[in-house]
């Protein structure tokens, strides 16, 4: 039932065939054990001023733990980076970047990614549409 975090306990209990009290106990146990890590609101990107989304692969010039940690610290400070994934393949990272527009993305690309000493290669994939997006 991850699609609707605001569902009432009574409605959830009906859907899964439990009594409301048993359902509430199970949800509380899932929260306590960390299976349910939180609840989120899905916010319209345009309402936040985001009109440009890109996925960016980043290759590092050194394959060391220190280089990765330095890169990850820098990326953690960049509000444009909405997701950062350490991946397998020809490059080390996949980033989801959200910016106001192309000019804002160019500034991020040049002034943030382009200045990090660990970065060796940057490839941008501009999102033209998202026919399916199930992120919460």
Number of domains: 2
Helix-residue proportion: 25-40%
Strand arrangement, major sheet? 2-3-1-4
Largest sheet: 4 strands, antiparallel
C-alpha termini separation: 12 Å
User: What is the strand content?
Assistant: 15-25%
Q: What number is the mean pLDDT?
A: 93
Task: Supply the helix-strand structural class.
Answer: alpha+beta
CATH architecture name of the largest domain: 2-Layer Sandwich
Number of strands: 4
Radius of gyration: 20 Å
CATH class of the largest domain: Alpha Beta
- Looking at the structure, the CATH topology of the largest domain is Alpha-Beta Plaits
What coarse outline follows from CA principal-axis ratios?
elongated
Along the chain, the helix and strand elements come as: HHEHEEHE
Classified in CATH, the superfamily of the largest domain is: Lrp/AsnC effector binding domain/regulation of amino acid metabolism (RAM) domain
| Low-pLDDT ranges | none
Number of helices: 4
């Amino acid at each position: 039932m991850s699609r609707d975090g605001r569902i009432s306990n009574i409605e959830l209990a009906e859907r899964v065939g439990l009594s409301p009290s048993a359902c509430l106990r199970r949800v509380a146990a899932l929260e306590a054990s960390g299976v349910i890590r939180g609840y989120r609101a899905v916010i319209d990107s345009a309402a936040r001023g985001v009109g440009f989304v890109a996925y960016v692969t980043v290759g590092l010039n050194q394959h060391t733990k220190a280089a990765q940690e330095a890169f990850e610290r820098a990326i953690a400070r960049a509000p444009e980076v909405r997701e950062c994934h350490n991946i397998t393949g020809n490059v080390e990272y996949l980033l989801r970047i959200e910016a106001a527009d192309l000019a804002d993305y160019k500034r991020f690309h040049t002034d943030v990614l382009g200045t990090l000493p660990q970065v060796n290669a940057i490839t941008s994939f501009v999102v033209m549409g998202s026919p399916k997006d199930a992120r919460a």
